[in-house]
Amino acid sequence: MKTKIYSLLLALSVIPVFSQVGINTSTPAATLDINGTLKVRDTPMVTALPGYEVMAVNQGTFQVAKIDPQVIIDAATAASGTNTTVYSAKKSTGITLLSLGLFPAGFKAVNFLAAERSVGDAALFSDTDNTYTIPSNGVYAVGFTFRYGSGLQAAILTNTPGIGILRNRAGVGTIIDGRVFSGLTIPLVLSLTISESSISSLYPFQTGDKISFGLTGSSVLDVGLLGASIGSFYIYKVSN
Questions:
Q1: Among 80, 95, 110, residue at a domain's last position
Q2: Which tens digits make up the pLDDT trace of 113-137?
Q3: Pairing relation of β-strands 54-57 and 87-91?
Q4: Cβ neighbour number for residue 148 with a 10 Å cutoff
Q5: Max alpha carbon distance in the chain (Å)?
């Protein structure tokens, strides 16, 4: 009798059994479905990735799957090379100067448009007020260059005209940086304004700050020369 029982058990042990086992769940959805935490008390340490695969959890289905470590490396490399704050634009025609009530006296913004961007997401720039909107808190690299007219004008420098970067934070406009056009005097001949200048530096900004690029001391500038002017700017986040 014992021999028959042992024979039966042995026979059952070699028959494939297909079923799903659930722990803390009555409706398992995989061969082993654990509804709870998992503790592993001893895992060996490896010193190199080749020959190994990484286990990952699908956040939607909670299933565990194998992933080649190179897939993770490639994804991290791609993510680190994408800076969604990068934006630059250049304007060489149709330049006008805009004046708003929040601007400090003498500052007028250049009417850059999203369509004039050379790099960046158009959603970062507003044609309504011609500003770049800061997408997240951090330190940003900003550059602004403007050549007024031919870049050399026969004029005496008054009111120190130049270029400026303006920050609008919660409706308060502040010029955060500026450069005046320099002068050159030729004795007994004339005084010239070198009407080309640039700014390039780092600035801390807050989410929602609006950045404008324009001219300062603009009351002394000849609007007729704007047709021959060229302006460009760039901006991107470099640190939190």
A1: 80
A2: 999 999 999 999 999 999 999 999 9
A3: unpaired
A4: 27
A5: 130
Host domain of residue 175: 87-239
Average pLDDT over residues 198-213: 97
- Token digits of residue 215: 């001219």
Residue type, 94: G
User: Torsion-angle region of residue 159: left (phi > 0), alpha (psi -120 to 50) or beta?
Assistant: left
Looking at the structure, tell me whether residues 114 and 51 fall in a common domain.
Answer: no
What is the phi-psi region of residue 224: left when phi exceeds 0, alpha when psi lies from -120 to 50, beta otherwise? alpha
Number of domains in the chain: 2
Q: Please name the residues in contact with 17: beta carbons below 8 A apart, sequence gap of 6 or more.
A: none
Residues 8 and 119 in one domain: no
**What DSSP character marks residue 50?**
T
> Over the stretch 140-172, which tens digit does the pLDDT of each residue have?
999 999 988 766 666 655 667 889 999 999 999
Are residues 106 and 220 both part of a single domain?
Answer: yes
Residue 8 confidence (pLDDT): 47
Hey, what amino acid is at 52? Y
- Residue finishing a domain among 16, 46, 80: 80
Interval 33-66: pLDDT, tens: 788 777 777 777 776 666 677 788 887 787 888 8
Q: How many angstroms separate the Cα of 155 from the Cα of each of 17, 97, 146, 231? A: 95, 20, 17, 21
Asked if the model's pLDDT at residue 225 lies above 80, the reply is no
In sequence order, the β-bridge partners of residue 138 are: 205
Residues 120 and 170 in one domain: yes
